[in-house]
Design brief:
298 residues; alpha/beta; TIM Barrel; nine-stranded parallel sheet; 11 helices; 11 strands; Xyl_isomerase-like_sf; myo-inosose-2 dehydratase activity; EC 4.2.1.44; lyase; manganese ion binding
Length: 298
């Protein structure tokens, strides 16, 4: 299963230090983070808030550990701010990632997002876009897609809890409204499961448009408590709703099979944000690496 040269394995630094809640793992340094990634057997990373933005400094630190940058999150505000603001920030982000050798750019629309609001219930307060906002989002993403293609890069859209593109219906709408040669999809197992969607159904439908994969699992007992107690997204994370593949309720085998059968090429990124004080990042990175190896041979 999977050609070793076609699929690369990375892990996100959010397990070491949380971008939305920097107090989680605040004591963990950049050097510790990337050293433990390499020690656990990964060859790639996304970019966290402690990563140097000087590309020469960052490249040297990564090369010492045989790591590459796979991508980095970009917050778009196409539904709430003038297009130029998002475009200007995107160009800077694109150029940084291009210099680091990345081929894809993770984009998520943060207009009206509640994912960073500690006091808003993740399900009850979820934003819903107007017809006009959908149009702004679709045309804006196509613009970003064109800018990415200038550097032979692709944008991959990250459906995400607490945003206007979270559910199956919303993913379908975005895919229908955008040019498939400009706007691709990031497939995140954890966010789909958390939202109550069927990851396998989404994967089968859009497998040829999926150019980046985030692997995270969901703890069923915490997930049920999040709904019952009307928790916010950040509190759900603190309580441990997410974990690494193989440690939760998701069956990854059919998902790996579909990706393999459709000759997926690109990155698998383990992205399971947890409180490092409760879930030792190195321990869980090793657990994830072993599980992926067992199921895929990678």
């Amino acid at each position: 299963m999977f050609k070793k040269d076609a699929v690369k394995l990375g892990i996100a630094p959010i397990a070491w230090t949380n971008d939305d809640m920097p107090e989680l793992g605040g004591e963990n340094t950049f050097e510790q983070c990337i050293s433990e990634m390499a020690l656990a057997g990964f060859t790639g990373s996304e970019v966290g808030n402690k990563y140097p933005r000087d590309t020469k400094v960052l490249k040297k630190a990564l090369e010492l550990r045989n790591l590459q940058i796979a991508s980095a999150w970009f917050s778009a505000f196409l539904t709430t701010k003038p297009l130029e603001e998002t475009v200007n920030e995107f160009i800077k982000h694109r150029d940084f990632l291009y210099e680091m050798g990345a081929k894809v750019i993770v984009v998520s629309e943060q207009g009206h997002s509640i994912q960073g609001k500690m006091d808003l219930p993740i399900f009850d307060a979820k934003p819903v876009f107007t017809t006009e906002e959908w149009e702004k989002l679709a045309r804006g993403l196509e613009k970003l897609g064109r800018l990415a293609s200038e550097k032979e890069m692709k944008i991959v859209y990250h459906h995400h809890m607490g945003t206007g593109v979270q559910t199956t219906e919303e993913i379908d709408r975005l895919m229908e409204m955008t040019d498939p040669d400009l706007v691709y999809l990031l497939f995140d197992t954890g966010h789909l499961t958390f939202s109550g969607e069927n990851p396998e159904k989404i994967l089968r439908k859009y497998v040829n448009r999926i150019k980046h994969v985030h692997l995270k699992d969901v703890r069923k007992d915490v997930f049920e408590r999040v709904k019952k107690e009307k928790m916010s997204f950040l509190n759900a994370v603190k309580e441990g709703v997410f974990t690494v593949p193989g440690d939760g309720m998701i069956d990854f085998e059919p998902l790996f099979k579909i990706l393999d059968e459709n000759n997926y090429e690109g990155w698998f990124i383990v992205e399971a944000e947890q409180d490092p004080a409760k879930a030792n990042p190195l321990e869980y990175a090793i657990k994830a690496r072993k599980y992926i190896n067992e199921k895929t041979g990678l």
